[in-house]
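User: Run a structure prediction on this.
Assistant: Running it now.
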Amino acid sequence: MTVNSKNFINSNSINTKSKKIDYLTLENLSKGDSAYIDIVPENLLLAPLGIRSGKIAKLEAKQPFKGPIVISIEGRKVAISRHIANKISVSIGDKN
């Protein structure tokens, strides 16, 4: 499956106009972007929500005033804090 990255700006080891990003997290995605989840922090609540390594997550919304982000994963929408989203490492591209 190909992951959509049409609106993506920041990427793993890619130089953007302003800075170089060493890694990518869910918080770095733009609305509508999809990415594979690579590393998930140890948190007992994430796995039951479907947030596990190897799954594809699509960013649906970022709530204003540093509120939660909403992702689609395994056919359901899940809201998580930006603090947790910033700890979930993701990648864009084909996973073979």
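Strands lie at 14-15, 20-21, 34-39, 56-62, 69-73, 76-80, 89-91.
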